[in-house]
Each structure stands twice: as structure tokens, then as C-alpha cells.
Write a structure and sequence with these properties.
CATH architecture: Alpha-Beta Complex
Number of strands: 8
Distance between the termini: 16 Å
Order of helices and strands: EHEEEEHEEHEHHH
Helix content: 25-40%
Bound molecules: inosinic acid
Shape: globular
CATH superfamily: Nucleoside Triphosphate Pyrophosphohydrolase
Mean pLDDT: 94
């Protein structure tokens, strides 16, 4: 998607039939595990490495035969992630935001879904058996939510990766809105991302 603007769900659903709808979800689960006996992981948050070498959230185009966006997203998840995604259903309450791209007539809907750690582990374990594995999906990754002593390792380094579309912004916004990261931390991370992009000559936003 190129130039996008936020749009309310009702407005998005009222767009003409020439518009195509994309749906993505951030799957996450509370995680009591501790790294190196000192760093509480708190949550497991899933993203995936796409065919184009960028990180994104699982999902995709919802076809007109689906009864709802959530139904279409659930079908896409079965293709992308395999039958580990059949242990949960996407609900309207999991919806967060929509972004419309008037030029390409594509509107992207973003969801977050809280799973149990067992459900998330089932998704990870079954992903290599999914239709899209090794094709559109090169592997699932968990997002490190901590920063190591050097101030780089962990989430700051993770955010230096290449992300598809607005996936990096969606990740940070969702982590803040869900209370997983404090707003001050998210602001610092956003500033760091902007500096990193400037260094790479990619612009400062
Ligand atoms: P694709 O069909 O998965 O390549 O996605 C089509 C378009 O949707 C991309 O060019 C992106 O602009 C957008 N997109 C794909 N994945 C994500 C995501 O995880 N978050 C936000 N936008 C995405």
C-alpha cells in the first residue's frame, strides 16, 4: 500500500465493491518464562518473515465469499499458519484499526488476538505444515520485548529490521494500546527508529 489514511470500520465496510480488503493480526499470549534467569519475557508476540524478506503480521486478502472480515481472516490464517490457527476464532472485538489506500483501492484492517501460551505454541509447532510455509511464509518469529544492557539488543535491534507497509508502526501502537509497553518506552523506540532510518537515508519517519 502506498499513501494511506486511517478510516473508521463502518466507513471502510461501506466502500464500493471495487475495493479489496486485507486483514492482519498480531497474535500474542502472556508468557511467564524468564530469559537467562533474569529477564521476564512477559508476552510472546508473533510476526513472520515474508517471502520478500520483510517482517509482517499474518493475514492477507479476504475474498468476497467470506461472511465477514473475521471469517476471511481466519481462512487466511489457516493457509498461512496451518491448523494451529483452528484452536481460536477471530471476533469483531479483536479489531483495532483500518487504513485505506485510495490509489490502489485497498483497505487494510488490523486485529490483535490474545491467545493462551499453549495456543500460540501450537501455531508455532504446526506452521511448518501450512500450505504457505516455505513459499509466502519463511518462518514465524517472536518479538523480543526487552532491551538488553547495551541499549540495542532486544526490541531496539529487532525494530531495525525491514517491515512490510506500516507493520512496525502497528506493532508499536498495539504494544502500547494493550499496555504491554509504556508510552515513554514506545516514544524512545520511535525516535530510535527515525534516527536509524535517517542513517540509512530512508527518511526520518
Ligand atoms: P501482500 O499481499 O502480503 O504482499 O500485502 C499487500 C500489501 O499489504 C503490502 O504491500 C503492504 O502494504 C500491506 N501489508 C502486508 N502485510 C502487512 C502488515 O503486516 N501490516 C500492514 N500492512 C501490510
Amino acid at each position: 500500500m502506498s499513501k494511506t489514511s486511517k478510516i473508521a470500520l463502518a466507513e471502510a465496510l461501506a466502500l464500493g465493491s471495487n475495493w479489496r480488503h486485507l486483514c492482519y493480526v498480531m497474535l500474542y499470549a502472556p508468557n511467564p518464562e524468564v530469559l537467562f534467569d533474569r529477564i521476564p519475557l512477559r508476552y510472546a508476540v508473533l510476526m513472520y518473515m515474508r517471502f520478500d524478506g520483510r517482517l509482517g503480521f499474518p493475514g492477507g486478502f479476504v475474498n468476497g465469499h467470506s461472511s465477514s472480515l473475521e471469517d476471511g481472516l481466519s481462512k487466511e490464517l489457516l493457509n498461512k499458519l496451518g491448523d494451529g490457527a483452528s484452536t481460536f476464532t477471530m471476533a469483531p472485538t479483536d479489531y483495532r484499526t483500518s487504513l485505506a489506500d485510495a490509489k490502489s483501492e485497498v483497505v487494510a484492517h488490523f486485529y490483535t488476538k490474545c491467545l493462551t501460551l499453549e495456543q500460540l505454541q501450537a501455531v508455532e509447532a504446526r506452521a511448518p505444515l501450512a500450505n504457505d510455509y516455505g513459499l509466502e511464509v519463511l518462518g514465524l518469529v517472536r518479538v523480543p520485548l526487552y532491551s538488553l544492557h547495551d541499549g540495542v539488543g532486544g526490541l531496539p535491534a529487532f525494530l531495525e529490521n525491514s517491515f512490510i507497509g506500516v507493520a512496525r508502526e502497528q506493532l508499536l501502537e498495539a504494544l502500547q494500546d494493550l499496555g504491554i509497553l509504556a508510552p515513554e518506552i514506545v516514544s524512545l523506540l520511535k525516535e530510535r527508529v527515525a534516527r536509524h532510518k535517517q542513517l540509512l537515508g530512508l527518511g526520518g519517519t
